[in-house]
Specification:
56% of the residues lie in helices and 4% in strands. The chain contains 14 helices and 5 strands.
Length: 373
C-alpha cells in the first residue's frame, strides 16, 4: 500500500496507548481488507476502491494477523519517530539561531570554552558549544570576556547547558524508539519454542514517558529562544532601536513578533504537561492502567512545530538587528550563509509590513531542511 500510494485515513485521536493503539491501527488494517477509507492520488476513497485503482487486492487475514496489525504501539511510535526527526532539525536550528543572536548582540564566546565545559563533562554541553564555536569561527561580532562586558545573560551564557540538556533528552528518546521499532508489541506472543504466552508488550509506557521527555526538551529550545528574542527587541537590554523598528515611534517593528513567540511558548507549557501521568480504565476495568502514549506523541509533535515558529522569530529578529547594525560583512561565513537563506524567506524590514506568512514559511523551512547538510 505504501509503495503504491494508498494511505489509510486515520483519526489522530482515540487511543489510550495500551492494548495497542487499537483505534488508529484499526483504521490502517481495515483498508488492507478492503474497507474503511484511504487517500489515493489526492482523493479520499473507500478502501476497496483505493486498492483497486492502485492495482491491489484486499488481504484475507489468517490466524493472529488481525491482532498483530492492531494490538501494538505502532501509532505512538510512528508519530514519535516523525516528531524525533523534526526535533533534531529544530534543535540544530536553535543552535544556529543562538549563533545569529550572539553576533547581533556581540555575545561573549568565553562561556563556550572547551576547557571550561570539561569541568562539567556532560558530553552534550560540548556537543552544542563546539558546533557553535565552529559556526562562529571568523566572526568579528563575537567578543571575549572583558572586551565589551564580563558576561552575558543566562539565555546566551547558558546555551550549552540548556540546549545540551535538550540534546540529552533527544538521545534518550532516540534509543527508546530504536528498541520499540525492532520489537514485537502485540499479544499473545508466539515464542520461538512455539509456546504462546499472554503478556503486556502492548502497553505503551516506555514510549509514553519518552514522548513526555521529548515534549519538555523541545519546549525548552523555544523557551530560551523567546528570551533571546526579548533581548533583541527590548531597547533597555539591547541599546538598539525599540523593537528593531527603522522609524521607532512611528512603527511597531517586530514588537508583535515577540508577542507571537511568547504566546507559543506559553502554549507549549500547557502541552508539556505529561500525558503519561494520566490513566483511565477501559474494557470493563480489565485494562485498569493505560499509558496515554499516543496523546504524548501528538503533543510532542505540536510542541516541536510551535518551537520551530519561535526559533524562526528569533532568526528574523537577529536578522533585523544585523541589518540595522550594518554588520553583514562582520559575520562568520557559516552564519552569513544561513542568514542568506533566512532573508530569502523574510527580508529585513525597511518599514512595517505583515510577516506572518514569512514567519510560517521559515518555520516550515526549519522543520524540513537538514541544516548540517
Amino acid at each position: 500500500m505504501l509503495v503504491s500510494g494508498v494511505h489509510p485515513v486515520v483519526p489522530c485521536k482515540g487511543s489510550v496507548g495500551t492494548s495497542g493503539d487499537l483505534a488508529p491501527l484499526s483504521h490502517i488494517a481495515i483498508v488492507l481488507v478492503g474497507e474503511g477509507k484511504a487517500e489515493y492520488k489526492g482523493e479520499i476513497l473507500q478502501g476497496k476502491e483505493a486498492l483497486k485503482r492502485a492495482g491491489l487486492k484486499p488481504v484475507s487475514l489468517e490466524a493472529k494477523e488481525g491482532l498483530a496489525l492492531i494490538n501494538g504501539t505502532q501509532a505512538m511510535s510512528g508519530v514519535g519517530v516523525l516528531a524525533l526527526n523534526e526535533a533534531e532539525r529544530v534543535g540544530l536550528a536553535a543552535d544556529m539561531a543562538a549563533c545569529l543572536t550572539m553576533e547581533a548582540l556581540n555575545g561573549v564566546i568565553s562561556a563556550f570554552d572547551s576547557e571550561l565545559l570539561a569541568v562539567r563533562p556532560h558530553p552534550e554541553l560540548e556537543f552544542v558549544a563546539s558546533r557553535m564555536r565552529n559556526w562562529l569561527e571568523g566572526s568579528r561580532r563575537i567578543t571575549r570576556q572583558g572586551e565589551v562586558r564580563i558576561q552575558d545573560a543566562y539565555s546566551i551564557r547558558c546555551i550549552p547547558q540548556v540546549h545540551g540538556a535538550s540534546w540529552q533528552a533527544f538521545n534518550y528518546v532516540e534509543e527508546r524508539l530504536k528498541v520499540e521499532m525492532n520489537s514485537a508489541t502485540d499479544n499473545p506472543i508466539v515464542l520461538e519454542s512455539g509456546e504462546i504466552i499472554s503478556g503486556g508488550h502492548f502497553h505503551g509506557q516506555p514510549i509514553a514517558l519518552s514522548m513526555d521527555f521529548l515534549k519538555v526538551a523541545a519546549a525548552e529550545w523555544a523557551n530560551i529562544s523567546e528570551r533571546r528574542t526579548e533581548r533583541l527587541v527590548n531597547p533597555q537590554l539591547s541599546g538598539l532601536s525599540p523593537f528593531l523598528a527603522v522609524n521607532p515611534g512611528l512603527e511597531c517593528g517586530l514588537m508583535v513578533a515577540q508577542y507571537a513567540a511568547a504566546s507559543l511558548v506559553s502554549e507549549n507549557k500547557v502541552l508539556a504537561h505529561p500525558a503519561s501521568v494520566d490513566s483511565i480504565p477501559t474494557s470493563a476495568n480489565q485494562e485498569d492502567h493505560v499509558s496515554m502514549g499516543t496523546i504524548g506523541s501528538r503533543q510532542a509533535r505540536e510542541i516541536i512545530h510551535n518551537s520551530a515558529r519561535v526559533i524562526a522569530i528569533e532568526m528574523i529578529c537577529a536578522s533585523q538587528t544585523i541589518y540595522l547594525e550594518k554588520a553583514e560583512n562582520q559575520l562568520a561565513q557559516a552564519t552569513r550563509d544561513y542568514l542568506e537563506k533566512v532573508r530569502l524567506i523574510c527580508p529585513p524590514l525597511e518599514s512595517d509590513r505583515a510577516i506572518s506568512d514569512q514567519m510560517e514559511e521559515l518555520a516550515q523551512f526549519i522543520l524540513r531542511e537538514d541544516l548540517l547538510r
